[in-house]
Design a protein that fits this description.
about 160 residues, Four Helix Bundle (Hemerythrin (Met), subunit A)
Length: about 160
């Protein structure tokens, strides 16, 4: 098992890459959606933030509570970036103190190890939706950030 400090560093790195995507968002992007019934850019970004809040609440209290992702009137890209940063800082504070070995409830109310909430909720779920947000940016004509410095097209042997 990895240590708490290493886990926190990993989650912070994942969330830092998500912030890099939020930095590319502009106010004019927020209402765009790829198709009817799909999340808008703002809804998807707020869902990432809301999922962080839900998972942190579950780690603190033992029960998840989803706060929703409805964009408030007047939402701006700057406000989304501030929310992303704030939930990232709160993540560090919670992970530094919470008992990751205890059992908490999952969304169905079934017993679930707290550390799985970190890996599944704070990492896998965020990476999934960050990828969606990168696809949205591409469709909007905005170059998404490279994941680890190279784009897939730049990898040795690509193409």
């Amino acid at each position: 098992m990895i240590g708490r400090e290493e886990l926190v560093r990993y989650v912070v790195a994942v969330q830092g890459r998500t912030y890099g995507v939020f930095e590319r968002l502009r106010d004019e992007h927020l209402g765009w959606r790829p198709a009817p019934g799909e999340y808008s850019v703002a809804e998807l970004a707020l869902h990432i933030v809301a999922a962080r809040r839900m998972n942190l609440h579950a780690l603190e209290t033992g029960a998840p509570r989803y706060p929703g992702h409805e964009p408030p009137p007047g939402l701006t890209a700057d406000r989304l970036r501030a929310l992303c940063l704030r939930t990232g800082k709160r993540t560090v504070a919670v992970l530094a103190t919470v008992d990751l070995e205890r059992t908490i409830g999952n969304l169905a109310g079934e017993p679930f190890p707290a550390w799985k909430r970190v890996l599944g909720g704070l990492v896998e779920h965020e990476v999934h939706h960050r990828s969606q947000l990168c696809s949205y940016l591409s469709l909007l004509g905005v170059e998404p950030p490279a994941l680890f410095g190279l784009r897939v097209e730049e990898l040795p042997g690509a193409r």
